[in-house]
Write a structure and sequence with these properties.
Distance between the termini: 32 Å
Bound molecules: hypoxanthine
Order of helices and strands: HEHEEEHEEHEHEHEH
Largest sheet: 5 strands, mixed, barrel
CATH class: Alpha Beta
CATH architecture: 3-Layer(aba) Sandwich
Number of strands: 9
Strand order of the largest sheet: 5-8-7-6-9
CATH topology: Rossmann fold
Oligomer: single chain
Number of helices: 7
């Protein structure tokens, strides 16, 4: 048995033992956004350290729990904290949970992150719905193709589901929440961008940038999952502001401020999915 199946079977057993419904939607909660996990009703909380083959998350603002329960009355599985490439994990380790989710029968993946504004019109606290991405990280599909999951050369048109983006727009309108559509640029980190790099990202069509999400999204699309991505804008790019520098604690604080709006949006969406 491969490690994906072994881990999926462990999680499936824990869900069955708790007499819970098996979710078909999973959420990955990024920096400072783990709060949504606390709103999950009747939660079964499984620390990553209990899960076979799972790594532990070392990043600030990441708790390291897998939570199964209901949100908006619908079964859901949430990762409270993700694995980043900058922590030293391989791309296979970073994306391992997504393949476990696919094995478990998850059909929809919602990914969230904290991101820096590249678009000069964005303000700290804005929510950006990811419409597309530009990837400067190593591609997690490099290596022998895992045919059981998907094809050698997966298509990346409509990577971020137009159906779920339209659903987000209608849920946001109902809730009176403003959303910005935009392109997410992914770099490895852990250093923040130089002013020249922020300018470069803007020139090539980026709206926000960060150090996560794209590896999980590529692997999710390879496995045929439907994907929705959302970024909380936690800082402006340093080429557009005077004198202030990027600070990781401030990024987590700003993400925390926007968490309530993001959570309300995701809850409404999950009700409708
Ligand atoms: N750059 C990269 N990653 C980030 C940023 C940023 O400005 N803000 C939050 N995550």
């Amino acid at each position: 048995m491969n490690s994906y199946t072994e881990t999926a079977q462990y999680i499936a057993r824990r869900i069955a033992d708790a007499a819970m419904a098996t979710p078909t939607t999973a959420v990955i909660l990024g920096s400072g956004l783990g709060k949504l996990g606390d709103l999950i009703a009747n939660p079964l909380v499984i620390p990553y350290s209990d899960i076979p083959h799972f790594k532990t998350s070392t990043a600030v603002g990441h708790k390291g729990n897998l939570i199964v329960g209901t949100l908006g009355g619908k079964p859901i599985l949430a990762m409270q904290g993700r694995f980043h490439y900058y922590e030293g994990y391989t791309m296979q380790e970073v994306t391992f949970p997504v393949r476990v989710f696919a094995t478990l029968g998850i059909r929809t993946l919602i990914v969230s992150n904290a991101a820096g504004a590249v678009n000069p019109d964005y303000r700290v606290g804005d929510l950006m719905v990811i419409t597309d991405h530009i990837n400067f990280m190593p591609n997690p599909l490099v290596g022998p193709n895992l045919d059981d999951f998907g094809p050698r050369f997966p298509d990346m048109t409509d990577t971020y589901s137009p159906r779920l983006r339209a659903l987000a727009d209608s849920c946001a309108a109902n809730l009176g929440i403003a959303l910005q559509p935009g392109v997410y640029v992914a770099g490895t980190g852990p250093s923040y961008e130089t002013p020249a790099e922020y300018r470069f990202y803007r020139t090539i069509g980026g709206d926000a940038c960060g150090m996560s999400t794209v590896p999980e999204v590529i692997v999710a699309r390879h496995s045929g999952l439907e994907v929705f991505g959302i970024s909380v804008i936690t800082n402006q790019s340093n080429d557009l502001k005077d004198g202030t520098v990027n600070d990781a604690d401030d990024v987590v604080r700003q993400a925390d401020n926007a968490a309530a709006r993001m959570t309300a949006l995701i809850e409404q969406m999950i009700k409708a999915i």
